[in-house]
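@channel sequence for tomorrow's demo:
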Amino acid sequence: MDEEFDEVVFVEANPHEMRQLEDEGEEFVFGDPRHPEVRREAGVKDASAVISLEEDFDLDNEMAQTLETVFIAVSDDEEEAEELMKNGAEHVILEDKAVEKILREKLGDKTMIISISLALMIAGILLVILNRTDIPEIPIYLGSGLLL
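structure tokens (generated this afternoon):
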């Protein structure tokens, strides 16, 4: 991801995913992003953008209200997404709709989408965030809750 952005910091609570980040040479902070001290260590307040993949409405709502930077979240609930937008989120990606749209654009309207894996869902979210029309080779870290 470093080719796309100047600096990316992951906040990761899963030791297995942390090792994967380490192997890829990605910068990360080990800990649960729900803890303010972990977010502080990661530099969330100073980030130019914060992307939360946590699907924790309370955490996302707190960050939407308090961060003075671009905040993007994902949700599977339209009402929660609307609430996050009202409270300051720059964008809230409705997972199923975003991934379905991308897949339909790539695979055509006649494609029936039955099931989407978590990795594919996150890849779709990142494609939307990056506003990419081609499918790039980007690392997908399933456990990463915050991308800065």
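heads up for whoever presents: The chain is about 40% helix and 15% strand.
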